[in-house]
Amino acid sequence: MRQSYFLFLSALFINTPLVTSLKIASALGVLEWTPELIAKEDFFNGAVDIVNGGISSLFSDSTVDLGSNSETQLLLQFGSHENLRTIGTVVEVYYRIVANKKSGITTLGDLKGKRIGALRTTSSEYFVQTYLATAGLRPADYTVVNGLGCLQEPCAANTFPSMLRSGTIDAIGMWEPSVEFGIETLGPDAVVFGDNQTVYREIYNLATTTERLDDPNKRAAIVQFFKALKQADDIFQSEPEKVITRAAEAVKTNRTILEAAWPVHRWGVHMPSDILEVLVEEDKFVASYAKREAFSRDSLATLIDASILEEAFEV
Asked: How far apart are CA 315 and CA 306, in angstroms?
């Protein structure tokens, strides 16, 4: 009997893959990271520690295995760390601009001479700059005003929705839910630009280092986490009612505001087919702030590694 029991345990040990623990650094104040939480809690067969941070945490904390941010932060970090790799998306988000009709704004071109709330050096400012260029506006034609996002009403005085309400700014251009709060703040005076527009979308990605990818145990864990992440993302995409309350609690906002902002999010684990073209164009913006030359196309190609996706999904 004892021998049979040990044979059973041995077979179980052999057939059950051991998953190394992972530590992930994500910006916990944005909706984009929440599929990682659902993957951790519902689908991943292993230990995951998710801490506040991002891609930069890969280099400030040696215990971090994965970092998630927008592609602007990816490019900023690549400037100092050639061992950085983006290995797949969590979600793509179509940013929007909400403007105050009482400021004389009814078209995108009316933002000339206006004050636009956006976070400098981030995907927020890049979005505003890129989108307004389609209306013939240059950065010198408007003023970018720094502030903070808002996750929960009442929004503080230094947050963009509150600044929009007070007239300190005329518009907001960034990620959610601050834009949705701005829409609610203005009510019938809200003018929204950019729903589902294709000039820019945030590519919120998971990144790691070549050292982590070369470590067999860590690599195996990352592959397994991507499988779990895809299961979570599939629910976010097809059955959001099952996860939206948990997502709202995770970012300390309310379900109603996320329901309104949900349609501009495209959930799905993949490597965008145009990722290299996006990085080449966007690096011109990032390089200007980083005070360096823009990377060549060949250099930026090394930043992309789809091998984890290939292993996880046999593509």
From this structure: 10
* Beta strands, E only, the chain: 22-26, 48-52, 66-69, 84-93, 96-100, 115-117, 143-145, 171-174, 190-193, 202-209, 265-267
Question: Cα(78)–Cα(66) distance, rounded to whole angstroms?
Answer: 15
The pTM (predicted TM-score) of the whole model is 0.90
Kindly state the DSSP code that residue 42 receives in the 8-state scheme: I
CB 229 within 8 A of CB 268: no
Do the Cβ atoms of 33 and 6 come closer than 8 Å? no
Name the token pair of 217.
Answer: 């145990």
Nearest-10 Cα torsion for 276, 280, 286, 290? 110
Instruction: Quick: pLDDT tens for 74-124.
Output: 999 999 999 999 999 999 999 999 999 999 999 999 999 999 999 999 999
> Over the stretch 270-307, which tens digit does the pLDDT of each residue have?
999 999 999 999 999 999 999 999 999 999 999 999 99
Residues paired with residue 193 on neighbouring β-strands, in sequence order: 97
| In this structure, CATH architecture of domain 17-93+201-313 | 3-Layer(aba) Sandwich (3.40)
Give me the residues paired with residue 84 across strands: 209
Question: How high does pLDDT run on average in the chain?
Answer: 93
Fold for 96-193, please state it. D-Maltodextrin-Binding Protein; domain 2 (3.40.190)
Q: Report the C-alpha gap between 47 and 106 in whole angstroms.
A: 51
What pLDDT does residue 44 have? 97
Instruction: Considering the chain, tell me which residue range(s) the CATH 3.40.190.10 domain(s) occupy.
Output: 17-93+201-313, 96-193
The yes-or-no verdict on residue 7 having pLDDT over 80 is no
